[in-house]
Amino acid sequence: MTKTTTAPSWLDAALEFCVGKTRQNLSNLTSFPERTDGGQWLQTAPELHGWWVGGHWVGLLWLTYAASGDESLAVAAREWASRLLPQLNDQADHDLGFLFELGYVLGHRLTGDASIKPTALQAAGILSRRYNPRGQFIQAWGALDAAPELRGRTIMDTMMNLDLLFWAGQETGDPRYAEIAAAHARTTLSHHLRPDGSTSHVCDFDPETGAFIKQDTHQGLSATSCWSRGQAWGVYGFADCYRATGDPVFLNASRRLMVYLWPRLPADLIPFWDYDSPLIPNDVRDSSAASVLASGLLSLAAIENDPNLASIWQNRAISILESLWKNYTSRETGEASLLLHGTRSKPHNLMDHGLIYGDYYFVEALMRLSKPGLSL
Length: 376
Ligand code: GLY
Description:
The chain has helices at 11-28, 54-68, 71-82, 96-111, 117-128, 148-151, 162-172, 175-191, 228-245, 248-261, 287-303, 307-327, 356-370, and strands spanning 33-37, 40-43, 131-132, 137-138, 153-155, 202-205, 212-216. The chain is mainly alpha-helical.
């Protein structure tokens, strides 16, 4: 099999649609979009300063700026990014990577403006303080003096926040950033990843001794099931770790997650919300799991050392994106989100809507195809 080099015929139309709708959303939004209801964005409360999703909206503005060359989108990205700043004073969450890598590092990469960097370095410093050296993991939720249940909790999503630490390590020359990120990834590999290549959403540890307690879930079906967005975070996050460290254990982890999930996708390649749902095929999909997976696969394809596998990852990503573009976008229906049929959390009764992170990773993946030389 040879690596696909030609851009798909629908790529330009898809990007044009994404840029147009983002411009439209920009003129309507007063706070950060999170999910849609009745086809319109529900916006996060201003006092949340973007909650965990603000970086995805800023990142979308940066990406559509890069796609279109429209400077007004870069101006908007900077303005919205500044609204994330109060989160630097709130140290109760691991999501600083989602917020400040997409809100700031991406802006630096796309514009070359070095004045954007110090804020992202500050965020990385705060994130690194969430590292528990006894258990060798980054605490997902809650303050550093929270109850033991929170202090000992890890989630698959944190795999996406490690790249901010790797970046900070390269910028500062301080090896501790990469050590923390790689140690967390190894702990995730040892405890979230099961022999069949599936992952648990959550793991609990004793925060004092670091001892592993159990697998669990928050947004998946059960402690023993595989939540589809968590699995996609893993494919993407382990690929990032391989790029940053060159350690083949992370490349193998990303591959193993793919071996598990690929045969479990339905014919149109858009995952159900949890691979173990007993309601499949009559259950809701999660288009955001598909877009995270597609972008992660393109990233994996770019660093895969087996050319055959690189082609497979690239072709699979394109197939997922084509399915999203043709059957899951709002291009003929008019909703405010780019993608339809995401699932924030079925256990919390939040499903079948647009999700800003689904939209972000859709455009990120399209941009990886459209401008492969771009550093994303
Ligand atoms: N990081 C939260 C989620 O994936 O829904």
